[in-house]
Input
Amino acid sequence: MSYQREKILAAAVELYLQDGLDGFSMRKLAKQVGVTAPALYRHYAGKEAVLADVMREAHRAFMSYLYRAIEAPTPRERFQGAGERYLDFALEHPRWHAILYFAPEQLGMVELPAHIEAMSSARHQFWIDRVRECMDAGILEDGDPTQTALTLWAHAHGLLQLYRQGHLQIGESEFRALFEESGVRLICGIATDAFAHELAERYVDAPTATEA
Amino acid sequence: MSYQREKILAAAVELYLQDGLDGFSMRKLAKQVGVTAPALYRHYAGKEAVLADVMREAHRAFMSYLYRAIEAPTPRERFQGAGERYLDFALEHPRWHAILYFAPEQLGMVELPAHIEAMSSARHQFWIDRVRECMDAGILEDGDPTQTALTLWAHAHGLLQLYRQGHLQIGESEFRALFEESGVRLICGIATDAFAHELAERYVDAPTATEA
DNA sequence: ATTTGTCACTAAACACTGTTACGCCCTCGT
DNA sequence: ACGAGGGCGTAACAGTGTTTAGTGACAAAT
Output
């Protein structure tokens, strides 16, 4: 990893955080580094390679947020803390959060690079671990932690996506409250007991939220 | 609404569905219509205006899917049917589903046009109505239907987003099953009874999923 | 019947974009 | 001292959204 490549990456991160994905161009990046655009191609194969590295930095930043939560003493606090760190990261660094979930084609790729896929899987695994230890602690209903974690992930990700794109016409503090309330709803379930019982009979593998 | 404008819109829809947002250019569109690019500007203010109309068509197509579900006789069937139509639309017409949730900046806008916001709100209202009548029918726990609908919407949207972007490494049929199972988990809740009780005490407004 | 005016269109251009080919220069190893 | 190679700049290509200026046709008005 040459010195110049690191310099380019640092400038790319700064440029992306400042101007977003649409405002990110190789010529702007070159100007910020202090060279002409073609010079960048000595160190990076193309724009997509630069953005892949920026994505990697975003993953790292995100991970550093999440891993702060595992210092808490109990599974429940780790679980809740991770949720809070997730929300903090997304709201404090919206551009970094956004790049984590850009479709490959938006970045000019056909598929995400392997090392990005790996970090994405690691993140997923983090949630699975949080869910599993909560199941072991008797806080979450037993079941496949992978699936339960996915349900949680999808819900949190979906809420953030809707907020970030303006589909929810509310401010940040209201959204924080809404995020928490919606999470509670997801954890407690939204069905009446009668309906939950009926569903539990039909989907035997599903967590029941019942038992008398 | 002139004849030529309709012709341009039809070509734009075709071009978008074929080549996606990245492959969509004013020059390609002009070629498909049979004119040169600047001619388009007599009928549309710019690319963003064309895309806004394409978005409107996508909303209409989506609505036509959703509204098929309200023919069912019971609230529960309408609710479940709407969920199925939602999934059908997203999987059968991924490009049309995608444009519904593109960020304004991706389309070169600062904010979504008012008529798009309106259709988005109408869609949200559709879900609120489904939730409300399920609450009235005693299938879903009483509460603010707006909030419960949002929880459901976020979950479904998040799952689809994750699937569409390849974060879930599975095929379509597996995803359909996963989508349904995750929905059941959301409706029944993922917490144990003890934890759900505790949460319900702290968040008095939240649905309880308890009561003996 | 001639003029006027409006409307849709084309050609050319501007300011961008990502990327490549070519040539220059400087440094490093021999 | 001298070749080799790496880093860089210039110019260029193909593409983008958009604007300006000019052309032609056709309808309305005098």
About this structure: Residues 206-212 of chain A have pLDDT under 50 and may be disordered. The longest helix of chain A spans residues 114-136.
